[in-house]
Design the sequence.
């Protein structure tokens, strides 16, 4: 029995050593597999966005020629490299890769250029010295036009529909910058300008006679710059301060009725009559805002002249008074040849607690 226990005790250290050996071998095997997997060559096809740009100082502009009908700003890349290397550029490929004139495979000279995309991308920092080979690019080339740009400072002027502005509208900036190709600049005829053009829609919400600002009016090429392409404008929008002209019109009304205006108590005490020939004013000219005149012309609004009579005037029994057209100051002007209205004022004879019985005795 004792011998059996001794034999069992002697085997335990051996088993422990065996487990450690097996564990170490397994770990080494896993590390070797991971390393081998990372170093094994892979081939991937990736779709990558490309952006074309000029240079840091904006003196060049690059455009893909219109004949490149299949160009959508993307290329398909066939890439070769180890699993680790391909994983290392994964973040780069998720962003658009910018290419510009002067890179290898991208001629810097102005004019039409054929760009070798494989050569450009192989030299690009996103792939250079990254352990990845670009086996193929689809499309392999694109045709672009490189413009050499010049910059000008040009005046800004405002255009409004004729007759709408009272005075000269003022833009928020007097000048703006334009960039155009050197060839287009040399061919310009006349003084280049930019125009902030206000439309009837822009003016519809403004109040005539008051300086107001229209915000965010686009700047568009003036006559000398119309058709120039490319044309880069900065700023692209301006604010314009404008005072709309108060639009007026006039109308002559052949007959304007005359009414009396007196308080309820005075109406109960006095009889007032207008001479028959003065119950309407003749040929009254009304001048004022076009909207008001249009309402008179269409019959939507009627004009009435009135004669206001105070208690003192009724007591005195005045024989005539000038007719009026408005109680408060107004932009509407009224012109009539003769506004005098002849009156006949008599006191009512009112019995206590009863109706009026006739004219008062004088």
Sequence:
């Amino acid at each position: 029995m004792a011998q059996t226990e001794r034999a069992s005790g002697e085997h335990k250290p051996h088993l422990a050593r065996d487990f450690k050996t097996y564990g170490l071998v397994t770990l080494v095997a896993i590390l070797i597999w991971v390393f081998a997997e990372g170093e094994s060559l892979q081939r991937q096809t990736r779709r990558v966005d490309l952006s074309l740009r000029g240079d840091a100082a904006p003196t060049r502009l690059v455009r893909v020629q219109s004949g490149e009908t299949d160009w959508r700003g993307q290329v398909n890349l066939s890439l070769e490299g180890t699993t680790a290397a391909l994983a290392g550029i994964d973040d780069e490929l998720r962003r658009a890769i910018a290419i510009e004139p002067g890179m290898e495979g991208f001629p810097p000279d102005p004019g039409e250029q054929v760009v070798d995309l494989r050569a450009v991308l192989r030299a690009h920092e996103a792939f250079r010295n990254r352990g990845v080979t670009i086996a193929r690019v689809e499309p392999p080339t694109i045709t672009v036009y490189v413009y050499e740009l010049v910059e000008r400072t040009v005046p800004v002027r405002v255009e409004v529909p004729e007759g709408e502005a009272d005075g000269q509208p003022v833009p928020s900036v007097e000048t703006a910058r334009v960039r155009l190709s050197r060839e287009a600049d040399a061919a310009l005829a006349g003084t280049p300008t930019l125009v902030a053009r206000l439309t009837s829609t822009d003016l519809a919400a403004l109040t005539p006679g008051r300086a107001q600002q229209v915000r965010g009016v686009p700047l568009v090429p003036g006559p000398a710059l119309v058709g120039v392409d490319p044309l880069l404008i900065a700023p692209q929008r301006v604010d314009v301060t404008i005072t709309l002209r108060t639009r007026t019109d006039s109308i002559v009304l052949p007959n304007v009725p005359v009414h009396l205006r007196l308080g309820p108590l005075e109406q109960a005490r006095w009889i007032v009559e207008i001479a028959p020939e003065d119950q309407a004013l003749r040929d009254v000219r009304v001048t004022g805002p076009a909207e008001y005149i249009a309402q008179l012309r269409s019959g939507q609004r009627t004009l009435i002249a009135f004669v206001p009579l105070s208690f003192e005037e009724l007591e005195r029994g005045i024989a005539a008074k000038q007719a009026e057209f408005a109680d408060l100051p107004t932009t509407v002007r009224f012109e009539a040849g003769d506004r005098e209205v002849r009156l006949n004022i008599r006191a009512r004879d009112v019995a206590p607690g009863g109706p009026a019985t006739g004219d008062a005795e004088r």
Residues 2-39 form the longest helix (38 residues). The two ends are 161 Å apart (CA to CA).
